[in-house]
């Protein structure tokens, strides 16, 4: 069928490398897939069983449009107990994933043509999500030499009279960098000076390895201008449950709730019950997952350090390794293609995360250490990497 019925906004738009990787992964039977951040672990049985029991007890209907009251109470309790932050109960709602939360946020806060600053390398959907809400993404690059901490002067130079918000992601996908508190405080100062909203995408809170995670909203003065997005997808390996939440000023959250009533109305009730039980069991469930991924990342980092024409900063957080392959003399896409064709290892080329990602690959640690070693054994045998 002709694409004439497709909106001009989407006509001819290419699929993202993330979705394309799913299509190519099946070309070889022995592929080691390091492309997508979908943990291979199954959700903890205790969460599944508790959610199932709740479904059998009748939790199969619409919930309150802000979300299941028990779940919202538990989210607020987590922030008090784990981060010492008491949030306004009217400023929390449950979303159908953090991606959905991002769309709701942008749809709610942006007028047509408003600019949103995004730090690159960035989570691939950010610019698209901003455009969905008729905003304009403004990209500010961060550099390996700075440990991917944004330079305040570069951030300030990107701010104009049309700037509405700054999107932050820490621990970061794809670099694994964790926003230093001093950098966060400088960003907070700029947000106050220019009257901006900070959208804090914090879905990898459990995967902050060097020091305990501190939410951006805990910076003094930021509670009235921060919208925090979180999810149970990664910390609790619950990607398929599609459940997340947003914290923000009560007036903004109310408007997001109203927008959502015309979108999906409420998040799935069974998934909300699963999230409730997951948060209640977080101290038993999350630490083993965190230690597992940290061990995988450190093993992959060791192998990168042993491989000619590859390098990487020591992982600070997340479940990804951001690998510098500039010494190959090839583009990221060329390196990724050769690794796939010759070693049957699937990675994502850096430009999928912004132009400054050229010369890098993202590796997701969603396979076991034996498979990681197998992948690097194959890569090491390639002539491109000294084999």
From TrEMBL:
Q: Does the keyword Glycosyltransferase apply?
A: no
Q: One Pfam annotation, family name?
A: Aminotran_1_2
Task: Name the InterPro entries for this protein.
Answer: Aminotransferase_I/II_large (IPR004839), AspAT/PAT-like (IPR050596), NHTrfase_class1_PyrdxlP-BS (IPR004838), PyrdxlP-dep_Trfase (IPR015424), PyrdxlP-dep_Trfase_major (IPR015421), PyrdxlP-dep_Trfase_small (IPR015422)
Per UniProt, the keywords (alphabetical) are: Aminotransferase, Pyridoxal phosphate, Transferase
Which Enzyme Commission number(s) are on file for it?
A: 2.6.1.-
- Could you state one GO biological process linked to this protein? amino acid metabolic process
Residue span(s) of domain Aminotransferase class I/classII large: 30-379
Cofactor field:
pyridoxal 5'-phosphate
The UniProt GO MF terms for this protein read: pyridoxal phosphate binding; transaminase activity
UniProt xrefs under PANTHER family: ASPARTATE AMINOTRANSFERASE
Membership in a protein family: Belongs to the class-I pyridoxal-phosphate-dependent aminotransferase family.
This protein is called Aminotransferase
State the species of origin: Mobilicoccus pelagius NBRC 104925
């Amino acid at each position: 069928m002709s694409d004439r019925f497709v909106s001009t906004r989407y006509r001819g738009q290419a699929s993202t490398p993330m979705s394309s990787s799913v299509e190519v992964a099946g070309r070889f039977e022995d592929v080691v897939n390091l492309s997508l951040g979908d943990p291979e672990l199954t959700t903890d049985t205790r969460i599944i069983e508790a959610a199932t029991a709740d479904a059998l007890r009748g939790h199969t209907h619409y919930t309150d449009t802000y979300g299941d009251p028990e779940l919202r109470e538990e989210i607020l309790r987590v922030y008090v107990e784990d981060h010492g932050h008491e949030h306004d109960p009217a400023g929390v709602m449950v979303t159908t994933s953090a991606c959905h939360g991002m769309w709701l946020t942008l749809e709610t806060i942006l007028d047509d043509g408003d600019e949103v600053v995004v730090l690159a390398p960035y989570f691939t959907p950010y610019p698209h999500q901003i455009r969905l809400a008729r905003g304009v993404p403004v990209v500010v690059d961060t550099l390996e030499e700075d440990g991917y901490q944004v330079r305040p002067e570069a951030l300030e130079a990107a701010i104009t009279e049309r700037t509405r918000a700054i999107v932050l992601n820490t621990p970061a996908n794809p670099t694994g960098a964790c926003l230093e508190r001093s950098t966060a405080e400088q960003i907070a100062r700029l947000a106050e000076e220019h009257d901006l909203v900070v959208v804090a995408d914090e879905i990898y809170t459990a995967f902050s390895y060097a020091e305990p995670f501190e939410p951006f909203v805990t910076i003094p003065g930021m509670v009235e201008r921060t919208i925090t997005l979180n999810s149970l997808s990664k910390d609790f390996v619950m990607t398929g449950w599609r459940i997340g939440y947003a914290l923000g000023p009560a007036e903004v959250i109310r408007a997001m709730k109203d927008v959502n009533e015309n979108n999906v109305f409420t998040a799935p009730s069974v998934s909300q019950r699963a999230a409730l039980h997951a948060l209640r069991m977080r101290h038993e469930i999350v630490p083993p997952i965190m230690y597992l991924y940290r061990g995988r990342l450190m093993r992959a980092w060791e192998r990168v350090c042993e491989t000619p024409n590859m390098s990487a900063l020591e992982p600070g957080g997340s479940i990804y390794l951001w690998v510098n392959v500039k010494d190959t003399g090839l583009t990221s896409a060329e390196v990724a293609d050769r690794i796939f064709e010759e070693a049957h290892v699937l990675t994502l080329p850096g430009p999928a995360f912004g132009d400054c990602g050229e010369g890098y690959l993202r590796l997701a640690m969603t396979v076991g250490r034996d498979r990681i070693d197998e992948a690097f054994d194959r890569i090491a045998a390639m002539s491109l990497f000294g084999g």
